[in-house]
Write a structure and sequence with these properties.
Elements: E1 7-12, E2 25-30, H1 34-37, E3 43-50, E4 61-64, E5 74-77, E6 82-85, E7 89-95, H2 98-112
Antiparallel strand pairs: 1-2, 1-7, 2-3, 3-5, 3-6, 4-5
């Protein structure tokens, strides 16, 4: 399976180990670079999304507007980066713009670095 940075995928995040970890099957944004995505590397780094919206929650969240493949506005959970096996990716739902990905990158850098 080939995935690309910036794509939105439906991902099975179960089982979760702790109650503060994101679980369920939900959309997620691929943030891993395409060199690894297009290799035989077995995992991919994603940021899960939620439809429980919290306004003005940057840098922890980034709002993505509803679009083809995404039924409603959603927040990207920037602080919940996770590596998952590519077999957990169930269906490609869409893709973010380069502007949206740059904004997520900047927020991710604020949270992580």
């Amino acid at each position: 399976m080939t995935v690309c940075k910036g794509e939105i995928w439906l991902v099975n995040l179960n089982p979760q180990k702790k109650s503060n970890e994101i679980g369920k099957t939900r959309p997620a944004v691929v943030i891993q670079n395409d060199i690894l995505n297009q290799s035989d590397y077995a995992t991919v780094i994603i940021l899960p999304m939620t439809t429980i919206l919290i306004d003005d929650a940057e840098p922890l969240r980034f709002r993505v507007k509803k679009r083809t493949g995404l039924e409603s506005d959603s927040d990207v959970l920037v602080a919940h980066a996770r590596a998952v096996d590519k077999e957990r990716l169930l269906q490609k739902l869409g893709v973010l713009t380069s502007v949206e990905m740059e904004q997520i990158r900047l927020l991710f850098n604020e949270v992580v670095f």
